[in-house]
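Subject: for your reference before the review

Hello V.,

The reviewers asked for a structural picture of the protein, and I figured it would be easier to keep everything in one thread rather than splitting it across files. Below is the amino acid sequence we used in the manuscript, unchanged from the supplementary table.
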Amino acid sequence: MTPPTSEDVAGTRAVDELASLLRPVRVTLARRSAEIVLGLAVLITVLVGFAIAGAAVDDRAITANPATAQAEVLDGSSFTRTLVRFTVANGEVRVPERGVFYPRGLQPGSMIPVEYDVTDPDLVRVAGRSAFERMGPLLLAALGGWVLLGPLAWAIRRRRAGRRGAPAA
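And here is what came back from the structure prediction:
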């Protein structure tokens, strides 16, 4: 067996120093794991609330200054947006960068009725659809987050309390 070189010793020393620097972070994360898990559940809930509020604000803007048009669903749509092309009242052809709101079930090449905000034609939704249709899946996502993360946080707290010999809170 060969004796360690100065490079081996220096490398080991660097790893030991890094481990000693990260140990307090690891201990803090382990100690606060239940709170971190609950924080993730709260974050999911807040993001769902923002998504619902944003959809309601956009719907209100379209409802305040409504116009309708026939739009063609374009190729190149993705999971996050469905592109449409339509002509506004002044004859300008628009393809909103964010796509159309509430696009469920649209196929490229099909013609659909859309409603848009006259003052901002990039705010466009499929006619007859609203933020209420989006609320169900979003609320289900928030509920799912709590169903998964709530019991996980509770189990972490019970396990931690069991190690200390204290009753679970």
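For the response letter, the relevant points are probably these. The longest strand covers residues 66-73. Residues 34-163 form one domain.

Happy to draft the paragraph if you're swamped.

O.
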